[in-house]
Amino acid sequence: MSIILQRKEYLEKVEKIYPLDTPQKKSANFNNKIFKKTSFYHYRMGLGISYLFFNSSFEKNITMESKHEANDISFITFNQSIHPIKLQDFSKKNDYIFKPKHYTIGKINENFQSYNTYSSNKEYCTHYIFFENKIFQDLLKEDLTQKSLYEVDGFKIMEEMITNEKQKLILNELPTLFSLEGKLQELYLESKIIDLIYITLNDIKNLSLKESFELNSKDIECLYKAKEILTKNISNPPSLKMLAHQSAINEFKLKKGFKKLFGNTVFGFLQEYRLNEAKKILLNNEININEVSSLVGYKNVSHFSKIFKEYFGVNPIQIKKNQKKVYI
Asked: Is Transcription a UniProt keyword of this protein (predicted)?
């Protein structure tokens, strides 16, 4: 049985360092009847990125009440302790066990409320990196949004991985840098955080490229249906989200599975199919380039002509000129 620790019981200490409105670093250390040797460190960079470090142990089993009051964000969280941490949504109906020496990637919405549970007389060490959503998406360049290890309203964990040795070295060093003063030392701290972000996101990208992706017979059937929908609607194709819905498959599997099965992305396949259909029309019908462009779904004829030449090596007008006419 654990004690419920309400936010007001520790917020007074934490709110002095988090959130920060301007780029700067702050820290707080305190002890009381509940917390033992507790440290909160926070550094806000000028890039839409923040770093937060939490280190503590507790006299008794504790469940900390938490509420995210900042804007919707993405995060990377490292559990560097040797103990698991249990996260529950505010209804206490769903929980997630954050394994030791692992890190998670996910998203959290404004006003999301949860509980984090810690056992007595065990030291916990957690590092957080928070990103503005657009910054995170631009950095990752990988669509993890369809993956979900744990999801409740307002919170989602998309990936969990074991912390590697390079990450561990940086994570061990980061808290020691908060005692240093001066712009040069702050620049060094920032460079270490950036290095940690680079190593972490690069590992995610490499894993995404290497991970095997198996398709069952139902998936294959759905993907062929998606292909058929595209070929029948080239002038006005559905969005990826709508195509997934119409094909009875989730968007993640649609994108990954389509490339695995047909050797091309959904967009790449659609473009190739459009261009080949355009060439057939040009060779067999007496219509102008503008009409052909529109028929295969290109509103801008200049764009159509450009990608047509890139794909076939000739302009569409040359196809028209070389078209053989047969008179009866």
From this structure: yes
Q: Are residues 125 and 189 in the same domain?
A: yes
Print the domain residue range for 202: 3-210
* pTM greater than 0.85 (yes/no): no
Q: Is 127 buried (19+), middle (13-18) or exposed (0-12) by CB count in 10 A?
A: buried
Each residue's pLDDT tens digit, 14-50: 666 666 566 677 877 777 777 778 888 889 987 889 9
Residues 156 and 277 in one domain: no
Domain boundary (181, 210, 239) is at 210
Residue 84 near residue 125, CB atoms below 8 Å: no
Residue 279 near residue 309, CB atoms below 8 Å:
no
Single-letter residue type at 39: S
* Final residue in a domain of this structure, among 210, 227, 243: 210
Cβ neighbours, 10 Å, residue 2: 16
Same domain, 68 and 205: yes
